[in-house]
Each structure stands twice: as C-alpha cells, then as structure tokens.
Input
Amino acid sequence: MPATSTPPARTARTVRVSSVLADGVTVGVGMPIILRFSPLPTDSTAFVNAAKVTVNGRPADGAWYWEQPTADEVKAHVVEAHFRLRSYWPANSTIRLALPIGGLSAGKGLVYGDGLTSVTFRTGDAHIATVNGTSLRMVVTSNGKRVAPPGEMSMKVSLGAPGTPTYLGTKVVMQKGEDDPATGEPRPDGTVRMIGTGSDHYDLLVKWSVRITESGEYVHAAPWNEHLGQYSSSNGCTNLSTSDAKWFYAFSRVGDVVRYVEVPHNGGTMPAWDGYGDWNLPWSQWHTGGLLPNPGSVS
Output
C-alpha cells in the first residue's frame, strides 16, 4: 500500500489590534476608546469577555460597538470597535483598558495578536459646545459653567447653506490644525488647507481650524463671511470670526463635545461612522454591538 501522511494543521491567522488613543494622553469627555482590527474578527465573544475598562479603578458600565470605517486613512483596517458609556466620561478621570486577548479566538481560524495589552488615558475638564442653527450662536461650557471669549456670552456662527447643509447631532473634536505635508510639521495658526471641487471650487488655507467630522466639517475662522449670526452660507463648516475661532481653537482638545441643534436645511444627523459620531446612536442600538453582536445583548 502507498504510504500516507497526515496533512499539516492549518495555522490560525492573527488579528492585529491597534489603538487610536496612546498611553498617557488627555482627551475630552466625549472621546470613545477606538481599536482597529485587521483582518476582520468574525466573533466578538472572547474579546468582549476579556477586555476590561475601568474608570478611576472601578468597572465601567459601557459597551463595545463594531463598525466599518470609511476614512481614507484607515482603509487598510477592516473594522473598528468603539467603547463608550451611556453618557460621557466623567471629567478629570483616569480610564484604563486592560486587553489580555493574545491567543484568544477571533472566530473560526482567527486568533488575536498580543501586541496591544492595555491603554491608559485621562479626561480633562468637561468641555461642551452647543451650536444652535436657529439663533446662529455657539455657547460653550466647561464643567457645566458657561465660558466664552472675553466680553461675550456666546459666539456668532454661520452654518451650511441649503445646498451644503451642516449635520445635526453630537460631534467630537478629532483634530486641531494639520501637518504641512511638505515639512511634516504643524502649519502655523491652526491652519488647514481646504479644497472644494465642482462648480464651487476653492483652495484656501484656513486658520484656527478644529475638525469635527471625517467628511470635512470644521469649526474655523471665516474672515470673508459677513453673515455671522445672520444666516447660514458656508459649505457645511461652522464659521466664526477670527478672534472667536482663535479662542475656540486654544480652548479645545481632541475628544471635546460639539452639539448641533435646530440646524436648518435638513442636513440629517451625523452618521456614527463619520469620525467620532458615536453619540448619535441610541444606547438601545449601541449596546447590541453593531457589525459583531455583543455576547448576551438583546436587540
């Protein structure tokens, strides 16, 4: 009889995990924990059971939500898992994610790598900005107390015009300014290059720019806009005077909350996947897990 041999066992593929947040950073109270996975896990059970989040040493009453990112910079990653509480993190607190998942199953033929085992970060003061699209005013609070540039109670804004409406909902500061690709260094004065295509073509260097959606909404200085506080005429961004924008830029940190209410022109609510839009999903939907159902969740 011909000799026979046992076929070699198939080796499980490793799911690599990385964190958007670095150890030791301080963020705003709206910032979710965001992990990126490649390739896509097919079962969240082992991960959710092993991952432990604490706030000031106590277990956090939150949940993971798995979603497909659409941002260009993360196309190489297949899926993200975001963790948040029912409401924002408490201010001035320490949050720790313990992630002992190395070697655990990520689904059939998949195991998690052990490159990331924990992340610890802090929250600062609770910065909440509310933009009202009817009054065209922005009101900012810190730990529940109103703050504003000297001599002002609120800031005049102009939002998106009818053809380019601003999203409703709760947004989170993603970035302040940007690096100059030619030098790799931050542009001065919080400047961002903004390019518009189509019939409304523009190519501008815009100062004191705070990014709040991946699709391109910013809070920024708009010295060309003579309609602040009167009517909305922007391309979707939140226009401020230069002095107000400079103040808001200095005040803001990544993870701060910017809420939009009564926005005209029916722009819809910011999608959860368009940056850090996590707070636009109700808890009843969030805790079930999204793309990968959380163990024990009930829709």
